[in-house]
Structure formats: C-alpha cells, structure tokens
Amino acid sequence: MSTFAPLRSFPYAIVDVFAERPLEGNMLAIFTDARGLSTDEMQALARETNLAETTFILPVDDPAHEQQHGIRVRIFTTQEELPFAGHPTLGTASWLYWNHPTLRGSEAITLDLKGGAVTVRFRAPAEGEQGVYGTMKQHDPTFGIIHDLDEVARILNVPREEIDDSMPIQTVSTGVAFCMVPLRSLQSLERLEVAQAAAQRYLDAQDAKFFYVFAPSPNDPESDFHARMQFYNGEDPATGSASGCVISYLVRHGRVPSGRETRLKQGIQIRRPSHIFVRASLTNGNVGEVFVGGRTIPVATGAFSLP
Fold first, then answer.
1. Which of 17, 137, 175, 208 is the one with CA 20 to 30 A from 91?
2. Is beta strand 132-138 parallel, antiparallel or unpaired with respect to 116-123?
3. What is the DSSP letter of 83?
4. CA separation for the pair 74, 114 (Å, rounded)
5. How crowded is residue 3: how many other Cβ atoms within 10 Å of its Cβ?
C-alpha cells in the first residue's frame, strides 16, 4: 500500500481594495499565515492567483516584536517580489484590522515591508458601512529624471499634442518608481493602449519601473483625475503606490494645492472602478506628508493545499 505525505494547508483571503462596493476596486489575495512557504513557493502562488499582487503575512511568536516593528509582509506580482505596493499594503492591513489576535480593531497597524515600515490608520466604520476605510502614509517622494516628450509619446502610442506639456514627464517614487505622464483629456486616456514590449525596453533603460498615465476629470463629480496603469500583467484597477507619486507630482508642479484632498478614479475601462483619496503637502519647496486612502471590502476565503 502506497503512503502519501500529508498536505500543508495555507489559508488565504480575497479582498477588494479601493472599492466602494464588493466586486469593484483592485482584488488582492492575502495568505494569512505564510510560515513554511519558500520564496519560490510564494512566487508560484502569486502566479496561481494571477492577480496584480498577492501578499504573504509572516507572523512571529513575540507580540512585542510586531508592535515595535510591524507585521512582516511580503508582496509579489505574478513575476516578481516588490518592496512596496499601495493596494497590497492597504488591503493586508485591513485584513489584520479584522482578524489579528491582538491588533484587531486598532486605530493604526504597521506593516514591516521589504521597502520599510508603512502605517495604515483606520476610521471606525459607521453602522451599515461596508468594509473599512484606511489611510496609509507613504514615504516622502523622490523626483527622478525628466523624460523626453516625443520619445514617450512614441512609446505610448499617444499623439504628441495629447500630452499636457505644461508639466514635465517625470519619474516619481514613494517606494516604487513611476513615470508620470499627464494627458490633456479623458478622451486621450480612454484610447490609451500601451505596447508593452516597447514600453518595457524603454523602462529598462530608465529610472522608472512603470508608466502611470492620468488626465483631469472636470465633469466627474466623484473624482478630480482619472488614471490608468497598463503593465506586464495587463491593466491595474488601482495603483496605490502610483497614487502617492501622482499627488506628490501634482502638488510639486502647482496643479493641486498643498494639503488638499484629491480624488482619483482608476479601473473604469476594465469595469473595476476604484476610488482613491490622496493628499500631499509642500513645505519649503519639499513635498511630504503623502497620504493615500480608500475602502477595503472582504469578499472570499479559502485555502491552498501543497505537498
């Protein structure tokens, strides 16, 4: 009689981040206790979920360590590990807000990420409110190179005149570097179709990892700007890390007043509307106090069985 080694079980949860209702926003898979998984297994599971990102919570036995340094979390796309990403940070902290044995219901929860500690603060839900609203403070932005407008227009298949040349095309990072590309109109944004092979060749030689393309939305009562982020895994419904970059960019270049909350909408074209609330401050010429907020709603649970 043959014998089989018992399977290991790894529970996971699915949440919708930057969502105002279930089945909107950006889906996130969270492996709620990833102890025992190797890096290769985490990467394989991220490919299996096939979402923009998947996170892995790594609990420790010492609660004091978590309170001092934060909950250790690793973030993976389908192709690589990231030091930081916005919707995985907000979504994972929200799951901990509902489920952590000692931090459940806390006003603030800190994640210990590869890119450094990030704290998410929560607003106590009102009666009947779906999910929970959280706000993360991102790292102060760094501003990188200014890109050539004609070259970026060619790479993105966007007519030159549709790019808003009153602001530079510039790399900004609050943990992940994005090339900020301002368009003049929502019509231009709607037509965006990035050729990924050409875009990747260009980005590999630059200081940015992804393009983030946006335009003002003057006739939308729910937002100030619409944005899109197309990358090697398709189109991202909501990009929290880029949202911190774009508000930093807009404040630095005088398009948004310092400290004013600004509303971004993303994911419309792929029928995953996402609502992202951002603000940043300009003090003595430096941008800081970068906050990105939104709602997280739980939608599913399950478990993977591995040998």
1. 208
2. antiparallel
3. S
4. 7
5. 4
